[in-house]
Amino acid sequence: MPDKIIAVTGATGTQGGGLVRAILADPERRFTARAITRKLDSDKARALAAAGAQVVAGDADDPASLERAFAGAHGAFVVTNFWEHFSPERELNQAAAMARATKSAGVRHAVWSTLEDTRLAFPLEDPRLKTLQGKYKVPHFDAKGEADAIFAAEAAPTSYMMVAFYWENFIYFGQGPRKTADGKVVLALPLGGGKLPGIAAEDIGRCAYGIFQRGPDAAGQRFGIAGEVLSGPEYAAAFSRHLGVPISFYDMPFDEYRALGFPGADDMGNMYEHHAILGEEFRRHRSPEVARALNPALQSFDTWLRANASRIPLG
Ligand SMILES: NC(=O)c1ccc[n+]([C@@H]2O[C@H](COP(=O)([O-])OP(=O)(O)OC[C@H]3O[C@@H](n4cnc5c(N)ncnc54)[C@H](OP(=O)(O)O)[C@@H]3O)[C@@H](O)[C@H]2O)c1
Predict the structure, then answer these.
(1) Residues with Cβ within 6 A of ligand 1?
(2) How would you write the chain as a 3-class SS string?
(3) Which residue from 59, 77, 170, 233 has the least number of CB within 10 angstroms?
């Protein structure tokens, strides 16, 4: 058993789960995977243990539990789940607790799954993007970006990973093509005529593992990753090819998207508008080249869709 441990938060979820699988799949067995969860007896936690990971308790709302969970680890992967509570303040507190615990536990290299603080490009008084909750532009981005300074000052040496839109959102997050009342199938996303960087969820953990393989020398570096960067019509054309029905693209106006009414619709709408206004300035921080250098098995959208077309609900 290798003695270098990577402690993984979010291990029962998408990003951390992919990292645990990448560590366990390494034929050179360079690291031991330690999966951190609040629910030791969940099916997902049991499956990680059966696959060969250490499974330990840890809760981002309980700093002492984090220090125990990170103790003795060489590396720590840190991810927060905004969508569980929708509170940027709580997400910032969780990120800060995890950052500080990496340092107090003596971790050598942390990888923090962050996103941009959009308020750096769009100060609150900037009318191009609506202000939400009084002090945010894109709440689920801003708190993560705000936490970067805490990682820089109070955490173990940290690398920063910025992740693109998961293509799995087309399956689980209601973002995929839909049948309209007249029987046509439409992919509706608010892209403002721009392109959307996306990535296969399983590739995220593999990229994070690539950062850990570079080691603490990669501390301070930012890795913005994507599998491919496509326009709305390009996504629709790929769906048409793989699903065997004509699918058109509707570039939904941002206000229409924000008014859809699902929890977080305003936050998501602002996210898309932020991407569209910044254009290339945003997209250059989500790079397939950067991702492929970390993870040579990186999937294109076509590859991902070939494997996942049957899981796309067209309801
Ligand atoms: N969807 C996208 O396109 C996209 C793109 C970029 C970034 N993101 C970001 O990705 C993040 C979510 O990551 P994910 O998709 O990997 O999550 P996920 O699949 O929804 O799983 C959530 C994970 O977080 C853990 N967790 C939640 N609260 C916790 C707490 N208080 N203490 C310890 N662990 C906790 C859960 O562990 P247990 O339940 O086992 O404790 C679980 O493993 C979000 O913040 C989102 O903004 C998403």
Answers:
(1) 9-16, 37-39, 42, 58-61, 79-84, 94, 115, 140, 163, 165-166, 169
(2) CCCCEEEECCCCCHHHHHHHHHHHHCCCCCCEEEEEECCCCCHHHHHHHHHCCEEEECCCCCHHHHHHHHCCCCEEEECCCHHHCCCHHHHHHHHHHHHHHHHHCCCCEEEEEECCCHHHCCCCCCCCCCCECCCECCHHHHHHHHHHHHHHHHCCCEEEEEECEECCHHHHCCCCCEECCCCCEEEEECCCCCEEEEECHHHHHHHHHHHHHHCHHHCCCEEEECCEEEEHHHHHHHHHHHHCCCEEEEECCHHHHHCCCCCCHHHHHHHHHHHHHHCHHHHCCCEHHHHHHHCCCCCCHHHHHHHHHHHCCCC
(3) 233
